[in-house]
Amino acid sequence: MQRPVIAIISTGGTIARRSMDPRDTVDYAEIGASIGGGDLLGALPQAVRKRFVVRDIPFSSCDSVEMTLARWFDLASVVNQTIAVQPDLDGIVITHGTSSLEEAACFLDLVLDLPCPVVVVGAQRPASAISADGPANLYAALQVASCPDAAGRGVLVVSNNEIHAAQEVTKVSTYQLETFRSPDFGPIGMIEANRVFFGRSINYRRHVGWPAGYGSGAGIPRVDISYSHAGADGVGIRAFIRAGACGIVSAGMVPGMCTPAENVAIDEAVAQGIVVVQASSGYCGGAVRRHELYSRGILAAGHMRPRQARILLALALMAGVDRDAIQTLFDMP
Is 291 within a domain? Predict the structure, then answer.
């Protein structure tokens, strides 16, 4: 049987960190050491490694809190180039820190359009920890990336033997292994008994594509997130306006509500031509474009969480998408 050919693009994060103390699952990020993609693969049993032809492509060794949209554009370029020069690839696995993994996966899903599966995977425990989850997650990701049924489903996130759609998943736990959830619709599949199962399909996909002009002078617009709370006075929103924000995502109280003072500041932002998107800070459920938002010229994030809504808004602004078309993207389930 021909072995599937998988490229592993390593970007750092917990899955690629090691501590001197096997009990350390907290301080390794600051005092530990980085390991490469080859080391990650080496942690798998030889019988597992023999199932795949793996090509290691180092990208970075930075922590996920150091990631930016510019770095994710570079990562997307590496993915495109890898496919272009290696047409025999069956799939791509990207290892990434979990703190910003949901943002990275969403970004890649919005800009990439590839013929083979792209799977983003991370870990909650460093490679040196007792019962490290990185090897199991990596093996599961290799299985999904080599599964023909995974193609055409957009970028996928694999963790704890579950498969999630990139635009639906979020990290919910600081240290527990079952950290990635898709709160509104659940995972789209699972890995069980060394087999990949898909339980549902996705009948929509928000997609912006590669913004024309990026890399040849076009910059990344500033888009900020304002987190609402009782008594918020709008100072943060006005600070974003002064900082030159082109867009602001309001992470409102559930189901997407702001204080009166914040609303005044938001209206000031809209009056200055800043695109404002109202999202909800809740765990699940959407922020809909009710009459009050529509009348004030504010968009609604739908089921996208604030951090992912920020990425979509930034890319849409780069692509020159008008407000109605941006709202249509957010209106998807």
Answer: yes
DSSP labels, 282-327: SSS--B---HHHHHHT-EE-BT--HHHHHHHHHHHHHTT--HHHHH
| Residue 176 and residue 321 in one domain | no
Domains identified in the chain, total number? 2
DSSP 178: -
Domain range for 80 is: 5-198
Residue 231 is assigned to a structural domain of this protein: yes
Element of type H or E holding 48: helix 46-49
> Are 169 and 290 in a shared domain?
no
Residue given tokens 């290691």 in the structure block: 56
Tell me what pLDDT residue 233 has. 98
Residue 215 included in any domain: no
Kindly report the pTM of this predicted structure: 0.95
Within the chain, which residues score under 70 in pLDDT?
1, 36-37, 216-218
DSSP string, 95-142: E--STTHHHHHHHHHHH---SS-EEEE--SS-TTSTT-SHHHHHHHHH
Q: Which residues are catalytic?
A: 14
- Rounded CA gap, 204 and 54, in Å? 31
Domain of residue 243, CATH code = 3.40.50.40
At 280 the pLDDT is: 98
The answer to whether residues 295 and 238 belong to one domain is yes
Residue 311 vs residues 45, 81, 109, 293: alpha-carbon distances, Å: 38, 22, 11, 21
